[in-house]
Write a structure and sequence with these properties.
- By secondary structure, this protein is mainly alpha-helical.
- The chain folds into 3 domains: about 300 residues, no CATH class; about 200 residues, Methane Monooxygenase Hydroxylase, Chain G, domain 1; about 150 residues, no CATH class.
- Helix content is about 80%, strand content about 0%.
- The protein has 27 helices and no strands.
- The longest helix has about 40 residues.
- GO terms for molecular function: transmembrane transporter activity.
- InterPro entries: PHBA_efflux_AaeB/fusaric-R.
- It is found in: Cell membrane.
- It is a multi-pass membrane protein.
Length: about 700
């Protein structure tokens, strides 16, 4: 018996552990599939109970709104209701204005679609989705109402009731069956980010691709901001905690940017071979980061104690460097690093205080409030919200694409005289609007179209061969379940998400789901053909008008980022730093989603994008120093000249303006005195960033002189 036993490290146990781990990893997806199925069947049953005309509308609403986390469901449901309500109101208004004028109605509809698409591109997260639904609702309410103007109000109230029923079912199921609250996920993400950042700044793990690391930090900020906004829907006590999460995210943005500047400076010292200075600075740097290994509750106090003695330690290190024959001019890097180290220490202290306050919110609210009040005393500014930044030309092109797509599909419907042409208009609008804000819309719409064809075929199989034998609601659920589960499974896979959305939408549209079973094969073929024609029109519009990933898009992004530096030089100071941080991260984050750091051209562009953080922050700190301290008149005048030359360079870059800016900054450096060390450090950071990334800056400029300089 013992000899025949399978060893614990044998193939059976390895297989068992592997399969167990794989199943454990699939639990969230399986749970989401189960909740989706329950919510869809609940919406279907209630729609039949209330004798609504199209149960499929409520079921599709569930598939669109349902998310793994309850906060996401509530947020998406809220914005879907808001968008649907506005869309219904506009539909009724347009039908009332143009009851017998289809051309004028469709022209106004195309303008409304363009406006809603522009809003979906400008805003982020589920706020964007509200604009999508406001446009989409015009198609599912307004167009049928134009065929029967006397039934406009009935159509509007029925569609709105079906949408509301779907929202209610999705929200109840998500919050009752195995609820996964978003606030808990956000707090867990904060803990994970704190641990990852602690490891990163202590350099415990080698990092070969620093651009990817910085972009991951940027992506974390954007993702957490989106989750934080959605978590506000979960309870009445969230707003205060939500405000603290926003403050924590802002603190992380600040300290991670300073860390990047420090890391860049250390890299320059290593490349220049100045090992003595680098080791001296790293000794002080590690004195700060080693504190992160202590208990989290003690870290802020230990950082504060270290900061009180930091100035003396840095002065001692500087005197030691002078003794080993470092010339004063070569100590500019040390002075810049000293200023950055002190700033990093202050910002890290603020970040850890806010982190402790947020993570201990539920158990020690009073202590957390005291802690956060102490932290905010040292925070120069806390923004009221995260600032999004979108290229207006990109917004206009997306709006134009949606408007033209709606007009083309509408003309097809009118001139063909085909009743199912209405399906073409509906799905052309859905595909044009729903994926306009996607990082790769053309690829996503292609996947949606494949899923649509698959969903139509599966809808035919289910309706014709299976549903005809379902003689009760229970049997109807059994008939639909495999297809719904398969479509939901596709949506849980990132590479098949668009395909899954198309499959579910077309399947639920063309499956015969009603109180009285009836199947019209000719109507099914016409409807499916019309829907696929609509998807084809949307695909064609995206192929014609889709700047994502093009050189033109890189040029526009480069111009937008240069404009960020110009704004940093010229805009009013109150709230400027927070606005600059968040809007620049939003721009860089959008670029990172669509490009790869393994591409040499993209890496060069990325280097310039990241240098914008250094230049812009240093410029803002210079302006704050001019406003807050009594600088010598000669230095203040020189700084103003430097700021103007930097703004001129970023406004219209070329070789001449680059040399002018560098000369102006160098003049300001020479005008600095020992009492203006912070000013000197910021000037040196600007100069080294311009020198290091001058070549990359010309790659993303659209001026002829810039391209000549690059060659």
């Amino acid at each position: 018996m013992m000899d025949s036993a399978i060893p614990r490290d044998g193939w059976y146990h390895r297989l068992k552990n592997t399969v167990g781990a794989a199943l454990l990893a699939q639990i969230p997806a399986l749970l989401h599939m189960f909740k989706m199925l329950v919510a869809i069947f609940l919406a279907m049953g209630l729609s039949m109970l209330f004798d609504l005309s199209k149960p499929g509308t409520a079921m599709i609403t569930v598939t669109i709104v349902m998310q793994p986390r309850s906060g996401l469901v509530l947020a998406k449901g809220f914005y879907r209701f808001l968008g649907s309500l506005i869309g219904v109101a506009v539909s009724i208004l347009l039908v009332a204005l143009f009851p017998q004028e289809p051309v004028l109605f469709l022209t106004a509809g195309a303008c409304w679609m363009a406006l809603c698409t522009a809003g979906s591109i400008t805003f982020r997260n589920f706020q964007s989705y509200a604009f999508v639904l406001a446009g989409y609702t015009l198609v599912i309410v307004g167009l049928p109402a134009t065929l029967n103007p006397d039934l406009t109000f009935d159509i509007a109230t029925t569609r709105l009731s079906e949408v509301m029923l779907g929202l209610l079912c999705a929200g109840v199921v998500s919050d009752v069956i195995f609820p996964q609250h978003l606030t808990e996920i956000v707090l867990a993400t904060f803990r994970k980010r704190f641990a990852h950042f602690s490891v990163l700044i202590q350099r415990k793990e080698p990092t070969t691709d620093k651009s990817s690391v910085v972009l991951k930090l940027i992506g974390d900020v954007i993702a957490l901001e989106n989750l934080r906004m959605s978590s506000a829907f979960e309870s009445a006590t969230v707003p205060l905690q939500n405000n603290r999460m926003r403050q924590l995210n802002t603190a992380f943005m600040t300290v991670s940017t300073t860390f990047h500047s420090l890391d860049e400076l250390f890299q320059r010292l290593q490349n220049n071979g100045d090992v003595t200075m680098l080791n001296a600075l790293l000794m002080e740097y590690h004195a700060i980061t080693r504190i992160m290994d202590n208990d989290k509750a003690r870290i802020p106090a230990l950082l504060q104690q270290s900061r009180q003695q930091q100035g003396q330690r840095l002065m001692a290190l500087r005197r030691a460097l002078v003794l080993v024959e470092h010339e004063p001019d070569t100590l500019l890097d040390f002075d810049s690093a000293s200023e950055l180290l002190q700033r990093f220490s202050d910002e890290l202290s603020i970040y850890t205080r806010l982190h402790n306050a947020v993570l201990h919110f539920s158990s020690t609210a009073d202590d957390a409030q005291t802690t956060i009040d102490l932290a905010l005393e040292a925070v120069p500014e806390i923004p009221s919200h995260y600032v999004n930044r979108t290229d207006p030309v990109l917004v206009m092109m997306s709006a134009l694409r949606a408007g033209i797509g709606f007009a083309v599909s509408s003309c097809f419907w009118i001139f063909s005289g085909w009743p199912s042409g209405l399906d073409a208009v509906v799905f052309a609008t859905v595909a044009s609007a729903l994926f306009a804000a996607s990082p790769e819309p053309t690829k996503t719409v292609f996947g949606f179209m494949k899923g649509a064809a698959l969903g139509g075929i599966l809808g035919f199989i289910c309706s014709y061969f299976i549903e005809s034998h379902a003689d009760s609601f229970t049997m109807l659920c059994f008939a639909l379940a495999p297809f719904i589960l398969f479509g939901t499974w596709l949506t849980t896979r990132l590479q098949y998400a668009g395909m899954g959305a198309g499959m579910l939408m077309f399947f639920l549209t063309y499956a015969s789901v009603d109180n009285n079973y009836s199947y019209d094969f000719i109507g099914f073929v016409n409807g499916l053909t019309g829907g696929l024609i609509g998807c084809t029109i949307a695909v064609a519009m995206y192929m014609i008008i889709d700047p994502a990933g093009s050189r033109w898009e890189k040029l526009r992004l480069g111009r937008a980022l240069r404009r960020q530096v110009v704004d940093a030089c010229r805009n009013p100071l109150p709230g400027l730093l927070a606005h600059f941080e968040s809007s620049t991260r939003d721009l860089v984050g959008r670029f990172a989603v669509m490009h790869s750091s393994t591409n040499p051209d993209d890496r060069k562009v990325m280097a310039w994008l990241l240098s914008v953080f250094e230049i812009g922050r240093a410029v803002i700190h210079l302006r704050e120093q001019i406003a807050d301290s009594a600088l010598p008149p000669a230095l203040e005048s020189s700084l103003q000249t430097s700021l103007k030359s930097i703004a001129a360079l970023c406004d219209s870059p070329n070789a001449e303006r680059l040399h002018t800016a560098l000369d102006a900054v160098l003049t300001s450096i020479r005008a600095c005195t020992p009492s203006t060390a912070p000013t000197l450090a910021n000037l040196h950071l600007i100069r080294t960033a311009l020198l290091a990334h001058a070549l990359e800056s010309t790659i993303i400029t659209d001026t002829t002189s810039g391209e000549q300089h690059a060659t």
